[in-house]
Amino acid sequence: MRGRELSQRFGALFKANLMLGAFLVGCTYILGLPLFSGSTLPLKLSVFWVVAAMIGQIVAWRADGGRGRLFLYGIFNVLGACSLYLFVAGISWVFYFSSASMPFEVRFICIAVAVAGTILWGVLIGRRVSAVLNKPDFLAHVFKDAGNEIEYRLPGIQQVNAYADARGLGEQFCLGLVLLAAPAVFLASRVVIPFPASRDLLLFVALLLCPASQLFMGIIVKAYLLMIRLPLRLERARGKPVILIDE
Length: 247
Fold this sequence. Notes:
The protein is 77% helix and 4% strand.
């Protein structure tokens, strides 16, 4: 990928993350202050993350220097994806269960189930993606040895599912169970335990967006494995840089 095209791609992604970060901070300010009785802690945390993500992207961009190193591009993208995950998770179950008036035990169980479900989803997706990345035919198709460097095209991430083994009925059931476990616990806690209904709209948002946040976590895991860990492994094994080229 030419330096100018690469710079334009980095620039476009940086602007998108900047806009998303501003939206995250704005939502935290508008929703967070009333929900947390004027506490500025959520706002400070969101500002800290946005600034840290932007600095991380700038460092990766500058470190690349127009060469198109895949692992640096991967870091750049994963930081942006994490901002999106924090936005979706934050405005749904994190805000709701951190601010709603409910028994401590209920709050703890709901948050624990959401966190455990997210981690488990990431592990399941990671195992599936790792199995594909270890297949020689996948590596030969996506990564091309060009002499002094190894070339990678962006559509390679779309080839992961094509090379993955077909999911069995049991695996599909487990994945669906992981996605629906947290919303089921959220809803059950609201039905079984009486607490104020003034924030039921946030509960509805949490029911919808908690699974979405888990899906975003799966995307982050896939991007990390394919665009950061694997290129670094190939560079160590073959002694050549892995370069991003035109699609």
